[in-house]
From TrEMBL:
Keywords attached to this entry: GPI-anchor biosynthesis, Signal
Pfam families: Peptidase_C13
Recorded metabolic or biological pathway in which this protein acts: Glycolipid biosynthesis; glycosylphosphatidylinositol-anchor biosynthesis
Disordered: annotated segments: 182-201
GO CC term, one of those recorded: GPI-anchor transamidase complex
Species name: Absidia glauca
Lineage start: Eukaryota, Fungi, Fungi incertae sedis, Mucoromycota, Mucoromycotina
UniProt GO BP: attachment of GPI anchor to protein; GPI anchor biosynthetic process; proteolysis
UniProt protein name: GPI-anchor transamidase
GO MF term set: GPI-anchor transamidase activity
Amino acid sequence: MKLYPLFVLLSLFISFTLCDTQAEQVEGFFSQSGHTNNWAVLVCTSRFWFNYRHIANTLSMYRTVKRLGIPDSNIILMLADDVSCNPRNTYPATVYNNAARVLDLYTYYNLEFLEKVDMTSNATLHDLFQTYDPVKIASEPGIRSDLFHRPLDKVKVTDFFGNVQNVELTRQRYPLIEETQQQEPNDTAIIPPPQQHDSALPQRHSFHVQPHSLSFNNATSVFGCLATLAMGYLISKTMTT
């Protein structure tokens, strides 16, 4: 009974150690550039036609993240209303986001920068934040650094808003076969010459039954069996009488 508390403490210590190790591995994976596990969650809770700009902004962000490499399988898009099918929409099944309408200026200028970025761009988040103009946005944009600890000038826009995998091309040949297998042995093996077969002769298989003539030995064995049976028959008759 005294060993039970020690066993519990040891189990808790091992579990905490494993949790810390896994957390460090996950944090190290996502802190690197080039990982391809980005997800985009786009939510618009605004309804009705007068909130057209909110839905247009959300769909514009959807277009941007998909263009930068995030597939539909990694995008969660939720819209509270479908303005593309609204009877007031002059262009059915389409939604436009342009400066001529009353739009969210902060989202608009973000999209204006992102439209100039493609999957091969080296622009960073620092470059994006440097484009913020309080006069154009009509507000003071704030940037939080407690949720994302990586340096902004080291994070590409495609790493944050996209899903681009880095591929390194090398000119060196990968050794698929070990060097020991590639080297020929010193002792050359003697290979027997291939057997010559006459292709003109037909090939016989086991299922081909060839007729055999009755030979002298076979006839002798048959007569011997008959003689044995006859002698047995005579002996049995003699004993019965």
